[in-house]
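Let's practice the habit of predicting before peeking. Look at the sequence and jot down your guess about where helices and strands might fall. Then scroll down.
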Amino acid sequence: MTIEIQVDKPPDDAASLNLHLDQPQPSGNEFTESLKAALTSLKPQIERLEQLLTSINDEHRGLGAVRRSLYSSKDKLAKDLEKAQECLIDVEESTATEEEIVRDLEGVYKKHPGDNKLRAFLDERKKTVIEYQKVYIIVNSQLRKSSAELSKTESEIQSVNRWLDQLEAERAEVMKEKEGAYKAMKSPMFMSQFMERGWQASVDRFGQAFGDEADIVT
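Done guessing? Here is the structure:
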């Protein structure tokens, strides 16, 4: 009994591939040179990105140090402001107490206008009130100054934070571009190494294998 084996013809794409392999292939040297040219064109771009990334990182570190210093100043100013506020309250309370004492002494002195000791004591208490008022002016001035410096420092911190956010966004963009450049270079580098190990011989063997397989199935 005779068995007939029918083998289908290869699809059009296989035939196209066979025809493509039959066409003259570029020499290994030509392909190697084209790969080297691709690598050469990518290296300056990567070097530029590396330099830009270094510059961004340096600026980021510098601004980070400025921000730490500003936060330290903010903490100190906040503590100074708190102390000034507490001191101002103490001065106000002490002044109010002395003024009340003076009023009471003046009432007593009116009843004893010829009492020289009482008069001297009253004058001393009035001087104390004046001293408290001077202290109040100084402390209140320091309070306003500390408050203004604290507001200025907080504004500077906000500016530095915005600048740092911008640098971080720029760094992310540069890193993305750098990653893309490395990916673009990775394939030419691999192919260049492959070429150095004998690309033309490998392609010839590949084409021969496809040619043999094509002969079998036709």
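How did you do? The radius of gyration is 44 Å.
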